[in-house]
Amino acid sequence: MALDRRGALAASDREALATHLERCAECRITWQLMADFEHSGAPAPGDELVFGRAAKAVLAKRRGRRPRAFRLALAAAVVLLMAGAASGAVLLRGRLLTTSGERDELRRRSGSKPRPAPGQAVPRVPSAAPEAPAAPLHAPPHPGALGRAKSVASRDESGVESRVEPGPLEDAAAVFVRAVKERAQGRTRAAIATFRGLQQQFPQTPEALVSQVSLGDLLLDGGDAAAALVAFDAYLGVLPSGPLATEALLGKARALSALGRGTEADTIRREIARRFPDSPYVRQGVGIQQKGGAP
Amino acid sequence: MLQLIFKREQVVVPGAAEAQGRGADDLAPLVARCRRGEKAATRTLLCALGPPMLQMVRRVMGANHADVEDVLQEALVGFLDALPGFRSECTTRHFARRVATLSALNARRRGSSALAKAAVQLDEECWAEMDPHDWALVSCRRQTLRRLLDDLPVPQAEAMVLHCVAGMTVEEIAVATECPPETVRSRLRLAKAVLRERAAADPAMGELLEDSL
Lengths: 295, 213
Hints:
The structure holds 2 protein chains of 2 kinds. Chain A is mainly alpha-helical.
């Protein structure tokens, strides 16, 4: 209809349109409205003054504005400051939790018994129910538990054993931040060891789960595609639609490609394109359209 | 109608590039200079886009609405603010029309109660050669559409304005609004259904529509 209003339809199409308009009331209404508005709002004498005033006002308004680059730099500085403050807060969190009440609260949430204060006798409460068997001496720490974590030895891709020594009262978040820092500093082996230590010490924390994707990326970049595949699957197995699902699926596709399983990799890339059409990876074609290659 | 829409791809007529919404954009060099911060280019661009944007504002608001000039300014500011993000997927004129449409729709929604009172006086355009009776019918239909725009969801209202008022094709709207054509068709279908209900519920409007066939 719009093309016909512009006179851009062939004669046969015009006839078809006329036939359609006879049958379709909604299109008749639309057609009539198009005709009604066609000459509406046409330029009138004095419009040049309106444009002049509007342009002058708009340019005057924009003159007072700072350049866009300056505004972007300012926004970036604010974001960096906030990120720094947040990182500092995370790092200091473990040290600030020094009162026994806070520790007991955290232990209570995580299911462990509070430790008695030094010199304080442990009250024995008679219980009708039989006591549960005592936990084994070398039982793994409870997930999410806060406290002096054990040092964990892990073996990196080169077979060199590296020992992760968590700081005093270091919790999962602090270990995660440390690993991310190591990764940012280019200390790949240390980062891998720290991520693995995090997963062993705090296996069911969100940080451990998220670290699977980071660990998978590091392992994949290091050439250990099989181990990377395990890491990505570990994340996807728990959170198949989690916030890092796209990255995990992309990593899995890369790992499968590296292992020579191109068909499976292509299937996953199609799945990414189908499930996350608005993802920047899909829009930019990063790792989606490439077959068998790393993104 | 779908066949007609798809057939238009094969029609070669003067101005077809503009009709596609992706054709050569004669304002593209000016836009590039504006992005580099040239004030003279910005002024020239505003003067070039002023008439079509003012026309869109008038069509949506009503030709004699008191806020037309303010809304035009608002639209021009919005256009310049949005220019850095403009990806040139449609012509600059279509982009400007869209900005003007959204500005006018927002302005209507902000002052809908006052508009409703003065609605009859706002559309006083009458061409010298037009029969007064025909003009009354045209004016009534315009007002019906404008009232409908106030009640529709913004995406549907935007699609309706760009299609019925600006005369853009579905494909041009899809490019300008960065939506799939099917989405635009769906929005238009929903909006037209509501319009038809209004026409059926309003005896005067229904009569006018019947007369117009």
